[in-house]
Design brief:
InterPro entries: 6-blade_b-propeller_TolB-like, WD40. It contains 3 helices and 38 strands. It is mainly beta.
């Protein structure tokens, strides 16, 4: 699946910039350190998602996670082919792999669900023998405690990881802990921090800190503060903040030569599930933007020995757009915002909706946008809609402050602020339910473009 590892290795050997592997569209992709030369690395098998790529220290082996949320396992890809590193088991999911500096062992997260008990573990596995050791075991408790994102120290003697719990306000409270790689008690290294990554020389550690409370994102019942990129001494002292925006960063990754830190962030459009890839110098200078106009790119990893880690422009505002619009043939609506809208890019066509979740500019984009389409001639009885005629179209405003626009064979669903920006994608005669027509005054009906009742 994807291109052969030998072909990918050849492309790396011939290229001057270092190579980066990352997740995109459910599979793994690769590109150069300047953001060019995007190639597929591993295509996702049907019904499964690939994530968490990590290259061995010599750059010859790639380990990654494959599967679903509850049955993921680790895969190992090298010149001989691809095989399972851990087995697929119902109720167990392995992810977030990290190589030991000698390339003999992989540390990873194991999530287990059994008998109404959720358990997370930091596990190490000897690649040659398959011998496993659970270093940290954390059962889900009334604080939602978990562990994840292991990372080896440069000498291989220590593994740093994230311990997370939730406070009474359902806000995440992560901290970085360390444990001896051969087993032993854990200790807290840095509070209000997560996703550790040691520098190649072992003197520093990069991580995401929530201490600044700069930006907040919430799910259905839990929230977390966006992580800012920090670098500190390996013992956690003298922390230095490198980013200052409301975006949430992923696990940072040091380049093999220690000159750059690679990470993904949704800084351009927070809350839009639209991560982009960046690198920055360890002192916070020369922030580069590697992906622009692509589908969401996340969880990046350097490939050791592949080239120069710094080849990009230090001015992210100059990053050119590399954008291929998604196909819209399956979208049944006749109104849309075009492929571009005030810097937003159409990124996804799914479930009868158009999603604008990527920003072609480094800053200054509006909030994410969505245009949906549905059946016109359903039941619209009752007075729960505020009716008006705009641009010759009947517009019904719901109690949720969303607009239903009757401009074709299908309803267009859109937020109020986007009504005037809608474009006609396909000319159609509007179909308007009789229940709504009956509520219009003669003056309002006279303003309507040609329509058919239903």
């Amino acid at each position: 699946m994807g291109i052969s590892l030998s072909a990918f290795a050849l492309s790396l050997t011939l290229a001057a910039p270092a190579e980066i592997t990352y997740t995109a569209e459910g599979g793994l992709a690769g590109m150069k350190a300047d953001g060019t030369g995007v190639v597929p690395v591993v295509a996702p098998p049907k019904g499964e998602i690939l994530d968490d790529p990590a290259w061995s220290p010599d750059g010859s082996r790639l380990v990654y996670s494959q599967g679903g949320e509850d049955d993921g396992r680790l895969m190992l890809k090298d010149a001989a082919g691809t095989r399972e590193l851990t087995s697929k088991r119902a109720g167990t999911s392995d992810g977030w792999p990290a190589w030991s500096p000698d390339g003999a062992t992989v540390a990873f997260l194991r999530f287990t669900s059994a008998d109404d008990t959720l358990t997370t573990q930091i596990v190490t596995r000897d690649v040659a023998s398959g011998t496993e050791r659970a270093l940290v075991t954390q059962r889900w408790d009334n604080r939602g405690s978990t562990v994840n994102t292991p990372a080896y120290s440069a000498d291989g003697g220590t593994i740093a990881y994230t311990y997370n719990r939730y406070d009474r306000s359902a806000d995440a409270l992560p901290e970085i802990r360390t444990v001896p790689a051969q087993g032993g008690p854990s200790r807290t290294l840095i509070k209000r921090a997560q996703a550790p990554s040691y520098s190649p020389d072992g003197t520093r550690i990069a991580y995401a800190s929530i201490a600044d409370h700069n930006g907040k994102q919430c799910g259905s019942d839990q929230c977390f503060w966006s992580g800012e990129l920090y670098v500190a001494n390996a013992d956690g002292t003298q922390p230095r903040r490198l980013t200052k925006d409301e975006g949430d960063i992923s696990i940072p990754r040091w380049s093999p030569d220690g000159s750059r830190i690679l990470f993904s962030s949704d800084r351009n459009l927070p809350d839009a599930d639209s991560e982009e890839l960046y690198t920055v110098a360890p002192d916070g200078s020369c922030l580069t933007w590697l992906t622009n106009g692509t589908v969401a790119a996340g969880n990046p990893a350097w490939r050791p020995g592949s080239g120069d880690s710094f080849m990009a422009d230090c001015d992210p505002s100059k990053r050119p757009v590399a954008y291929t619009p998604p196909k819209t043939t399956k979208f049944v609506g006749n109104l849309w915002l075009g492929h571009r809208h005030e810097g937003l890019l159409l990124t996804l066509v799914y479930g009868g909706s158009l999603y604008y979740r990527d920003c072609e500019r480094f800053s200054g984009c509006p909030e994410k946008a969505e245009v949906g389409a549905g059946k016109n001639c359903g039941r619209f009885a009752g007075g729960g809609y505020e009716l008006s005629v705009r641009r010759g179209w009947l517009v019904a405003k719901t109690f949720e402050n969303r607009l239903l626009v009757f401009a074709g064979r299908r309803i267009t669903f859109v937020e109020p602020g986007l009504l005037d920006d809608l474009k006609v994608r396909r000319r159609e005669t509007a179909r308007i339910p009789n229940e709504l027509l009956a509520r219009l005054s003669p003056a309002q009906k006279a303003k309507l473009k040609p329509y058919r009742s239903c």
